[in-house]
Amino acid sequence: MKWNxxxxxxxxxxxxxxxxxxxxxxxxIFLGVIAIRMFIGEPCSVPSASMKPTINVGDWLWIDxxxxxARLPRSFADIPIINVFTWFKPLxxxxxxxxxxxxxxxxxxxxxxxxxxxFESPEFPHPLLVKRIVARFRIGDTIxxxxxxxxxxxxxxxxxx
Length: 161
Prior knowledge:
This protein is an alpha+beta fold. It contains three helices and six strands; from the N terminus they run αββααββββ.
């Protein structure tokens, strides 16, 4: 079979177009995965036995970010998959200067008693903590914590929710 010069050029153009289509499809899938993890939900492994017997260590939960509203990223390090670039020290140092603050999208509803809440520990960002909501308070309510684990009685005024 002989190839003429014009036929070969058309074949090369078709191959280039196919490559461009594949790159576009893979890019859209990549962006879709990032959007789902940022705004819709993500899987989470339970790190501790604090929720036993209902939830055990190593159980997997789906974190629904649409119910209470997804947290918007403060910096590039908060964006799934993209955050791998912040593993490099020069990029991490630049990213540490970026801080968009703690902002949230509007959620479907407020937390209810009995819901599970997944959040970052104030001391350590990882692992995520999983706790059950047992009460709701209004601004100005007094919270009294009196358990055997504490040696003092704490009175705390709720200043924000």
